[in-house]
Amino acid sequence: MSKQLLDVLDILLARHADGDRQSYAYELAKEVGQASGGVTQILQRLEDNGYATSCWAPPTGPHRVDRHLYRLTPLGVDWARQVLELYDRRKLGQRGGSARTR
Q1: Which fold has domain 3-95?
Q2: I want to staple 54 with a disulfide (CB 3.0 to 4.6 A). Which of 36, 46, 68, 90 is the partner?
Q3: DSSP string spanning 10-68?
Q4: CA distances from 71 to 18, 27, 77 (A)
């Protein structure tokens, strides 16, 4: 499991807890400090597997284009929690440090 995937899941799960706010790939990429292309691929794979859903957002101003907004599905929320919990357990077992917060 890549750090980038774990970071994206962590953010999407936090946004779900904050009222299921949808996210743009570019916005997520900025938060995880990665290229938006890699984050977009992760989001597309999550969607292909039923863990995320997307919808088109209309342009927000002149010279803007339509963009996808992503959010976790109920299945994705459960899966993300399991993945992050497993990652936390392994990390705690290896380093004895503190777990991620959600």
Answers
A1: Arc Repressor Mutant, subunit A (1.10.10)
A2: 68
A3: HHHHHHHHTT---B-HHHHHHHHTS-HHHHHHHHHHHHHTTSEEEEEE--SSTT---EE
A4: 12, 13, 9
Q: What is the pLDDT of residues 7-21, one digit of tens each?
A: 999 999 999 988 867
Closest CA to 81 of 8, 7, 10, 2: 10
> Using an 8 Å Cβ cutoff, are 99 and 25 in contact?
no
Handedness of CA 82, 95, 8, 12 (dihedral sign): positive
The closest alpha carbon to 27, from 19, 18, 17, 15, belongs to 15
pTM listed for this prediction: 0.78
Over residues 33-43, the pLDDT tens digits come to: 988 899 999 99
Give the residue carrying structure tokens 């995937």: 5
